[in-house]
Amino acid sequence: MKANVLCIPLLVSIALNLVQANVPDNERPRGVAPSRAKLYTPDSTGNWKCLDGSKTISSKSINDDFCDCPDGSDEPGTSACGNTYFYCENIGHLPAYIRTSRLNDGVCDPECCDGTDEFDGLTHCPNVCQEVGTEARKERERVRKIEKEGSKIKSKYIAYGKGAKKRLREQLQNLKTKTAQIEEKTAKAQAVLDELNAKRQEYLESSKAEREAARKIQLEPFIQQQKQMLAKAIEIKSKFRSTLDDLKENYNKNYHDLAVKATITGFDEYLEELKQEEADAAAQESKEADQDLTAIKLLTLAQTQTYDVKKEIGRMFQLIKSMKEGYNTEYNDEAVLKAIKVLDDFAPSWKDDQNEFVDEDDIEVPEEVIETPQLADSGKGVFDSIYGSIRKAAKSVGIGFLFKEPKSELEQAQETHRKTSDEQKKLKDEIAGVERKLETDYGKDEAFAQLVDQCFEYKEAEYTYSLCLFGEAHQKSNSDISLGKFSSWVGDNHDTQMYTGGLRCWNGPERSVKVTMSCGAVNEIVAVSEPSKCEYLLKFRTPAACRIISDSEVPEDPNVIPEAIMPGTVPEGAEKKKHDEL
Q1: Burial of 368 (0-12, 13-18, 19+ CB in 10 A)
Q2: Which residues constitute the signal peptide according to the record (predicted)?
């Protein structure tokens, strides 16, 4: 005949209670746990001392619905004192304590699934401990399986984490070895570069006259071309100057044409300003005449003079143009008409808005002519000359890209130094990254190392929250808002992380996130909230937060029902354990 499994918890609980106390149940005061029954044993005279030792009363006063003891210990089974606790046996489920103030209050307290909190009979509370206990045992078994599975995964995480730290240390050593080697190469490259730069400077100083002569030969065509442009501009300037001089001398003053008068006034102002400009220019020319100008300075001087002359042409052009647009056409002033004809003849060849001739472009001198003039005897070998000829021919038929210009010894040294310097900087950055990872706290036994930079998302209403562990947290909707970067663990338990320095809230603090970790068989965000303005709370489950369950550990028997711990007390030898909500 099979035993009813629902009776097992009942039998176990009864047996446990009999073992824990020598006081028969009918002598144990109501509301007192079996393990505390001996505390209520009267002395030989039938008296009993309050548990705080403050008073001795008759044992008959226990649970007489009158509070005799200051600590309320004489009324564990009534609401007379209200400041102590009532023990619910809850046979078939877990025992529990409630405050005595909740006894016989007309409410069936869920902590007392056996209904003993309403013992006066005025409120009927059914005993549902068997049903509740069955569900609780199922839940404990579910949690136990998750913890066991999480423990196995965490063991793998730990193995990975320890291996990762070992690999990082090895990588750091290799990077430092490479850095020492590349530093030596960089130093040698720098020495070669310094030597070549010194030789180049020595060459530049010793060949200055020769190079200037070569540059002058190469720049001479450009200088002559610029001088021709200057001569053309001076000729046009003279034409406009004489035209305005003639206008000023011969216009009919009796007409009182305001447009003509404005042009004459503007011309007088121009002449006055020109006196100072010409004086400055003469002083500059005198100064430059005393100097041995280089070819580049000669070219620059011609370009500057051309620009200045064109600017004067533009000003005189505008004076006559404004007169043309406003003069009285009925006067037929010959001097005015003559000036307008000069303007009309010249206008098609002039860019009025740029002070430039229509058919004239700026002279462009090849950069290599200015920077490094080609000497008559460059010292190139036969191969260089032949290669140069081939390259020139290739460019003429559009395939010059196939023949790269050979690099000089200095250019090669510069490139070598640049490469070694870049490699040295890259190694330095890599070392900093590895050292940063080695210094990061990945939890006890490096259990969280495998989760570095792994990202998880959670949708809440119109928002999607993203968390990259040891990285950044974001809130996404129409825009991506930073909630902060990983800053630290909170406390020593490695179950809470802080992410700070997020986007500042409008009229508020910078956004931040607290991430609380709990045991789970998979990595997932299970809840998001905002307890305070712009301060977010993410609940995260992960195997890394589970405790390690050894193979030798005996699993808890779901049928063994532990006695509840009375609030404010810790049984001898008991250890506090943290239970995760799974």
Answers
A1: exposed
A2: 1-21
pLDDT of residue 293: 73
How many residues does the structure list for the chain? 582
| The pLDDT of residue 153 | 95
Return d(Cα 530, Cα 367) in angstroms, integer: 64
Q: At what angle do helices 295-326 and 258-289 cross, to 10 degrees?
A: 170
CATH 3.40.630.30 fits 445-545, yes or no: no
pTM for the model: 0.55
Q: What are residue 528's DSSP bridge partners? A: 538
Residue 55 is given by DSSP the state -
Cα within 13 Å of Cα(477), Cβ side: 6
Q: Are 446 and 155 in contact (CB under 8 A)?
A: no
Using 50 as the pLDDT threshold, list the residues of the chain that sit under it.
Answer: 1-21, 290, 375-383, 387, 403, 572-581
Enclosing H/E stretch for 345? helix 334-346
List the one residue out of 431, 434, 488, 544 whose CA is nearest residue 164: 434
Q: What per-residue confidence (pLDDT) applies to 56?
A: 96
Domain extents in the chain: 7-127, 208-371, 445-545
pLDDT of residue 18: 43
What does the pLDDT read at residue 496?
97
In this prediction, residue 11 carries a pLDDT of 40
User: Please, is 501 exposed, middle or buried when counting C-beta atoms within 10 Å of its C-beta (0-12, 13-18, 19+)?
Assistant: middle
Question: 113 near 128, Cβ under 8 Å?
Answer: yes
Tell me what pLDDT residue 32 has. 96
pLDDT at residue 468, as a whole number:
96
DSSP state of 381: -
